[in-house]
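Sample entry (391 residues):
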Amino acid sequence: MSQLINLEVFKNFFKSSNAGGILLFICVILSLIIANTSASGSLQSLLDTVIGYESESIHLNYSVLLWINDGLMAIFFLLVGLEIKREIVEGELSSPKKASLPILCAIGGAIVPALIYLSFNSGKETASGWGIPMATDIAFALAVIGMLGNRIPASLKVFLAALAIVDDLIAILVIAFFYSSGIETTYLLYAGIGMVILIVMNRMNVQNPYLYLIPGLFIWYFIHHSGIHATIAGVLVAMTIPTNDTAAESPLERLEHALVKPVNFLIIPLFAFANTNITLETEMVEGLVAPLGIGISLGLLLGKPLGILVMTFICSKLGISSLPEGSTFKHILGVGLLAGIGFTMSIFISILSFSDPLHINEAKLSILLTSLLAGVLGYIVLSVFGKKTQL
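Predicted structure, serialized as tokens:
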């Protein structure tokens, strides 16, 4: 009987909307603990282990860490791309009126943090990290707001989801244009041929979404060798998969549903575990009050809510769009703080930003602590003002 109860609890946990965020948090804590014990060397050796295949014409021999960051994260970006396309076709980004507020807020919430970061790091060797505080971790942010239940207007959850999706799109463009190097046009041409094949498949109304993944693998390989970050391949493939604005389930939605659990319960937690194994050192802690740490912390904690609030105010005053139904500017402040949970995307960009391991670890530590603080403050603000709204 007890085994049946435990199995039921286990199933209910994985059905919960907060399960992905909780598992992510557990992996972060576990990784930090291991990194600061005698087992840290073994973990790093595992991550440095090279696996794959190498020949004169095929080059696929990489460390476990690189397979996670460039390979598995391409699947994460495939899911992000599917979500973006679905929202554009039939969701919160499907019309100018619906899309204007989350799009403009996402832009404001990206530009202001980048400017704050540069105000502390311009002209320094850490200046290249300006993209770090621009990102929002959609899984963590939605997990926190989901914990508030019906204490806040339902429209706020929709608004945060749409904002975070646009935020992801901005991060994708930033990675593609600013964090790629040494473009190899031949490989890019091969990737372009792969994209043409996918577009033709779309025009021929090929309905099996998994058939799109076969050319997608080749596109990933060619983009990886072109100098553009390989994860962009996931987004490009997603844009070619058919969808519709009807109640019938589309190929895009079938693939999206198939990917949600593997991404939320395996890929993202594994990425977090592999990339937060930070061995705490005195220099790293001192980095929290260095320009790098201050730029990241103020960018996420101050820049995000400020950019989102300013854009919301402008949109409201100019009549471009209105606040989410039943919400106030105090609610928007809370959402802005939750958008300051950078975590996955911010850590990803920090890896691309620096070559110095110390700078990468300093950035990771700042992201972790600031994201935690942003989540707690966002929860408190929305909890307090959510209750007041219902009185």
